[in-house]
Specification:
heterodimer; A: alpha/beta; 4-stranded parallel beta sheet; 21% strand; elongated; B: 5-stranded parallel beta sheet; 3-stranded antiparallel beta sheet
Chain lengths: 687, 288
């Protein structure tokens, strides 16, 4: 135990004087004005007043005074060892995104290092390993007295981008201060191998290293989710650790309400885990962010922009004139199935493809050679989902010389008719959906019958290409990926001519699954438009106004490649009606645990012996500046309270009237009251 | 505060019905009053018709009423008379004291009670006057309040110029020696006056809630008294005994003179004391 202000202890020499004063001085009487004094004259007390204060009361008061003096001398019980070396202390703090959890404890640990330096009369300098808001590489601040550095430390905030340890190592190589180096680590390394080794070497070269590491796991990183047919899969990356790390992901809407909460766990030794979020399309379209439950960080939050929600669907009919005829038109059932949850567009193929579109549905529309075919093929290659329905036109076309190659399978000529006056066969029901199909889990109604269909060439219609079948195994829905996109063919018409399918709820569910399967479309912006930062995240994952240095990004090229950096902080970019989200985890390497810095623990071994958790944040924070002064003062307060309680029953107390508050008479302001200086807790008492 | 006093007093008195003080010795003190006594007597207001009885003078017959039937009727009027009530409150230095900010000074409470009682009396048609004031009996509360400011009320009152058979109400802390009180009450009883004594005490005077070593003091430089009590808790019982003896003595003095006596503490609501005064002054049912 040491004292920060040892000269205050000189006041302990005054305690015997206090003892003597308390023993020889009888308590002064209090003066009260009292009209009914005639009744008091000549009354004698029935109980004897002790001439002197009892010895135990003296002891209690002496103890209280001694405790106050000791408390004012600012004792520090857990002072920690002296910092190694001499000369200025270099404080290296990780202030990338991974430092945001337990940030106050990191600051406390750093402050305790500063305290130890201050007690040793050393100066200090600060180095944050992340680039600052202006994009400047990490640099060591000027060497200054500890008291001035404290305010700089308090102003330090975790950044929403990763640390740049290579640049920090470069800054460390230019350090020739000599003294100790205290490193408050976030437990992650941005690039394993050479960069980390270089950083560790530079740390060791700068001076004896005292490494303070968090006790728990390093911060997890929430990766952009993966969109599946009927769900969103949240992905969490975590530095591999030998324990199971449970996590919970909140799916939140724009107004901050949580629409879903899913939990998962990263297995021991694994570097990531997934948790599916199943939401109905209506709710899924309202999602605006995924948040990792726990300490807020920029890496634990993924902003979802329009790309995750908007899936415009284009409708094209072969026979445009009859397309919308109620109950018989090819688009009538499609429109009624899709309208409640998607944005529908109509027109010819060229008009529709002029804007971004997710899904294009061709109902018995034959695509011949020509510009229309090329447009469609290029769009599917880029990621479009083309859904086609068969029909008389398509059945006629299959026999022609110019086959339509925008089909998932090769079709046999003509169509197949089941049932009818000239046929022995009966209309066929549907088979149960195979589990690998995106339609898996949908209930197939018994009363759906297919009377006509186009037939796929049996060799080509493999199991993988078929998403739904009739009960006899004939493919009903086939698909084939093309480039980044996909072509899906329903072997029946989109109206009730060939089957009962459009009349059933299964039709609606199938279309919903298909639309959810499609890639989203970002806001329809000009590719050359520059997207200005609108709202950006800070290190704690809070959206706020962008920092002054944040720069705009070009929609098409730069945005697709941009990584979170000081010039492009993660957040929302672009105009109000077409926000694009730039997330920290979009292009961030998976987090890796940083290895121990060899040699660092030797310097901290003195503390390790004592507490067994040396070099951790908790041990570092224990040696706080406040020391144990509050404890001593609190003990003194307890002693005074005990004294006060004892006085209640004791005669001749100095100045207090404990009965005042308990009786019917409220306390009365009386300036004539004479309080013995310094011994009464009730100085300045008022009514 | 003096300006607010009549308003508060009236508000206090408004909750009780008008006070009718029984006029005991009608012949001596009766004055033509404005308020009916709800019985037959001298007055202007019609009270009742009753049949003519032998012995009534013929002049007393109400001919107009008698003409309506075969019998003769006598018209009787309501008796209207007023009683004078003389009020006094102690305005001495010991009354201008309070033990804590939460309670009023004793004189403040005494004046409030006096005015509230006067308000009740005035509403009952009685006459009210202050002992020690040369002014004529007041008929309005504001006027009485002005007179109150002019009457110091120091020292126990003497019955100079008071009408006989009036009622007197004395309000004060009555901590003076019993002999002085007895002399004052005896002088007033010999007029004769009947009345009521109300002792107003501060809660600190009633309970002595001090503790420890206290020096009690009272009075100015010349007549200053002080008492050093080493341990107030020890004398609290003795003080209570003395206070009880003082109050018992006051009650005895009052009873001997046919007066009433009651005690009021300033931390208690004034309504209780006002009700006690009301009960003491209002006629008992059997004496009508």
């Amino acid at each position: 135990m040491i004292f920060a202000a040892p000269w205050v202890l000189l006041a302990l020499a005054g305690l015997p004087i206090l003892w003597w004063l308390l023993r020889v001085t009888p308590p002064a009487p209090r003066r009260e004005v009292f009209p009914a004094i005639r009744l008091l004259l000549g009354l004698t007390a029935t109980a004897e007043t002790p001439a002197r204060t009892p010895w135990w009361l003296l002891l209690l008061r002496g103890l209280a005074a001694a405790l106050v003096i000791v408390g004012l001398a600012r004792p520090v019980l857990d002072s920690g060892g002296a910092l190694p070396g001499s000369g200025p202390v270099l404080l290296v703090m990780d202030d990338g995104w991974a430092a945001a959890p337990e940030w106050p404890r990191r600051l406390a640990a750093a402050a305790s290092v500063l305290d130890r330096g201050e007690r040793a009369g050393r100066t200090a300098a600060l180095l944050g390993t992340a680039p600052d808001e202006t994009g400047a590489a990490p640099a060591i601040g000027p060497v200054m007295p500890v008291a001035e550095l404290r305010s700089r430390l308090a102003a330090l905030r975790p950044k929403p981008w990763p640390s740049d340890r290579a640049a920090a190592a470069a800054a460390l190589r230019g350090w020739h201060g000599g003294g100790a180096v205290a490193y408050v680590a976030d437990g992650l390394t941005d690039a394993p191998g050479v960069a980390w080794d270089g950083f560790a070497t530079a740390l060791r070269a700068a001076g004896p290293v005292l490494a303070l590491r968090p006790e728990g796991l390093p911060a997890p990183l929430l990766l952009p989710p993966r969109a599946e047919a009927d769900r969103l899969v949240a992905r969490v990356a975590q530095a591999a650790a030998p324990v199971v790390a449970p996590f919970a992901v909140l799916a939140q809407s724009g107004d901050g309400r949580t629409l879903a909460r899913v939990t998962g766990a990263v297995a021991a030794g694994a570097s990531g885990a997934e948790a599916p979020i199943a939401l109905p399309p209506e709710l899924r379209n309202r999602l605006s962010r995924l948040v990792l439950e726990g300490a807020p960080t920029a890496g634990g939050l993924v902003l979802l922009d329009e790309q995750w929600r908007r899936r415009p669907v284009g409708l094209v009919a072969g026979d445009a004139t009859a397309a919308d005829t109620p109950l018989t038109g090819p688009l009538y059932y499609l429109r009624r199935a899709l309208d409640p949850f998607t944005e529908l567009r109509e027109g010819d193929v060229k008009t529709l493809l002029a804007r971004d579109i997710s899904v294009l549905i061709l109902a018995d529309h034959v695509v011949g050679d020509g510009p229309e075919h090329d447009l469609l093929a290029a769009w599917v290659q880029k990621g479009g989902l083309l859904v086609r329905f068969a029909g008389p036109e398509m059945a006629n076309m299959t026999g022609s010389d110019t086959p339509d190659d925008l089909l998932p399978v090769t079709l046999l000529a003509g169509d197949r008719q089941l049932g009818g006056a000239m046929s022995w066969s009966q209309p066929r029901p549907l088979a149960a959906v195979a589990p690998a199909s995106p339609f898996a889990g949908l209930t197939v109604p018994d009363d759906v019958r297919v009377t006509r269909q186009v037939l796929a060439e049996p060799r080509r219609a493999s199991g993988e290409a078929t998403w739904a079948r009739l009960a006899d195994g004939t493919p009903l829905v086939t698909q084939a990926p093309r480039g980044a996109g996909r072509i899906v063919l329903f072997h029946v018409t989109a109206n009730a001519d060939w089957s009962d399918l459009p009349l059933s709820g299964l039709f609606v569910d199938m279309l919903r699954r298909l639309v959810a399967l499609a890639a989203g479309v970002a806001g329809s912006t000009d590719p050359q438009a520059s997207l200005a930062p609108a709202e950006t995240l800070d290190g704690f994952g809070q959206l706020g106004p962008p920092p002054p240095a944040a720069a705009a990004l070009t929609a098409a090229r730069e945005f697709a490649r941009a990584a979170a950096a000081p010039l492009h902080p993660p957040g929302l970019y672009g105009p109000e009606n077409g926000r694009r989200a730039l997330n920290l985890s979009d292009r961030l390497a998976p987090p890796l645990a940083a290895p121990e810095i060899s040699g660092a623990s030797r310097e901290a071994s003195g503390r390790r012996r004592r507490s067994g958790r040396a070099g951790t944040l908790a041990a570092g924070a224990g040696a706080g500046a406040a020391g144990d002064r509050p404890a001593a003062v609190a003990a003194a307060a307890r002693a005074v309270a005990a004294d006060r309680a004892a006085r209640r029953g004791s005669p001749g107390c100095c100045c207090c009237w404990p009965g005042r508050r308990t009786r019917t008479v409220p306390a009365m302001p009386n300036p004539a009251l004479d309080h013995p200086a310094g011994l009464c807790r009730h100085r300045g008492r008022s009514a | 505060m003096p300006l607010l006093n009549p308003r508060r007093a009236e508000a206090l008195g408004a909750r009780l019905p008008p006070l009718l003080v029984a006029a005991e010795r009608v012949a001596a003190t009766v004055a033509q009053g404005v308020h009916g006594r709800r019985r037959v007597g001298q007055g202007d207001s019609f009270w009742q018709y009753r049949p003519f009885l032998p012995g009534d003078t013929a002049a007393s017959i109400d001919w107009r009423q008698s003409a309506r039937s075969d019998r003769n009727f006598v018209r009787e009027t309501e008796w209207e008379a007023a009683q004078t009530v003389c009020l006094w409150r102690d305005g001495g230095a010991s009354m201008r004291w309070r033990s804590a900010a939460g309670v009023p000074e004793k004189v403040e409470r005494a004046e409030l009670l006096l005015l509230a009682l006067a308000s009740l009396l005035l509403r009952g048609g009685e006459r009210v006057r202050l002992i020690g004031s040369a002014a004529r009996p007041a008929t309005a509360l504001d006027r009485l309040n002005e007179q109150l400011g002019q009457v110091p009320g120091v020292g126990l009152p003497s019955p100079v110029g008071l009408p006989r058979h009036a009622r007197a109400v004395l309000i004060g802390d009555l901590l003076t020696p019993l002999a002085e009180v007895q002399a004052a009450v005896g002088r007033m009883a010999s007029v004769p006056l009947t009345g009521h004594l109300l002792q107003v005490l501060d809660p600190a005077e009633a309970l002595l809630p001090y503790e420890g070593r206290v020096r009690f003091a009272w009075g100015e430089a010349a007549g200053a008294q002080d008492a050093l009590i080493p341990r107030v808790e020890g004398v609290r019982d003795a003080y209570a005994t003395r206070l009880a003896a003082q109050q018992q003595g006051l009650a005895d003095i009052a009873a001997a003179a046919g007066w009433g006596f009651s005690v009021h503490r300033t931390d208690h609501p004034p309504e209780a004391a006002l009700l006690a005064l009301y009960m003491a002054l209002s006629p008992e049912p059997g004496r009508r």
